[in-house]
């Protein structure tokens, strides 16, 4: 069951402040122990009459005045915690979006019309690049008559970048390769871009420095390649190449 409009609860500033105090104390205790161990083994000669039986965790000389701790403000620690929380939230969102897309392919394969309708937005935006004879997905979604030898979508790879889920596959003879770029919003698929026998490169726009000159090298530097199709080169013929910026 896919829930639309689900919300995630994040950390508040008060909660982060409390966590930062605890983590700061834990960091200090860890640094004290590590500093004592290193001082004992690398700086101080053994003084026990029988060093062979000396436990390295007994009678370690610890002096807080001789330890230089790095400056660690609660604000910088809070920023790290927020960044970590955001990263985990993004990973969770991407995993959920891939689950939604997988469920759609399963529903299409089993002809589960009700599930397909629940996963797709009623005003789904569809974009297609390829031969008109390969508009198999459109026929499936519009309820066109399906023959026994109709095209079967068998996904071979799933890759998520935020709300965008990229799926790649091919037919059994590897003469037709296809790529679907799905957009998932609050658990509902709102857009699909189809590419048949097309080499696709996915990039992400950066924030170029306004002071830097506008050149081809600077544009390529700020638009790094995130993903490239791998099956389009195995169809045995030359295929066009496109770039999808997200």
Describe the structure.
The protein has 246 residues and is of the alpha/beta class. 36% of the residues lie in helices and 23% in strands. It has five helices and eight strands, in the order αααβαβββββαββ. It has a five-stranded mixed β-sheet. Strand 2 (155-161) and strand 3 (164-170) form a beta hairpin.
Short characterization:
The strands form 2 sheets. Strands 1-5-4-3-2 form a 5-stranded mixed sheet. A 3-stranded mixed sheet has the order 7-6-8, with no helix packed on it. Helix 1 crosses helix 2 and helix 2 (74-110) runs antiparallel to helix 3. The chain has helices at 13-42, 74-110, 113-119, 136-142, 216-222, and strands spanning 120-129, 155-161, 164-170, 177-185, 188-196, 199-203, 225-228, 241-245.
Shape: globular
- Stretches with pLDDT under 50, minimum 5 residues: 1-65, 208-220
The number of distinct β-strands equals 8
- Please indicate the percent range of residues in DSSP E strands (runs of 2 or more): 15-25%
Calculate Rg over CA atoms.
28 Å
Mean pLDDT across the residues is: 73
Helicity level, as a percent range?
Answer: 25-40%
The strand order across the widest sheet is: 1-5-4-3-2
One letter per element, helices H and strands E, the order comes to HHHEHEEEEEHEE
Discrete helix count: 5
Largest sheet: 5 strands, mixed
Structural class: alpha/beta
CA-to-CA gap between the ends?
A: 28 Å
What secondary-structure arrangement, pairings included, does this model have?
Elements: H1 13-42, H2 74-110, H3 113-119, E1 120-129, H4 136-142, E2 155-161, E3 164-170, E4 177-185, E5 188-196, E6 199-203, H5 216-222, E7 225-228, E8 241-245
Helix pairs in contact: 1-2, 2-3
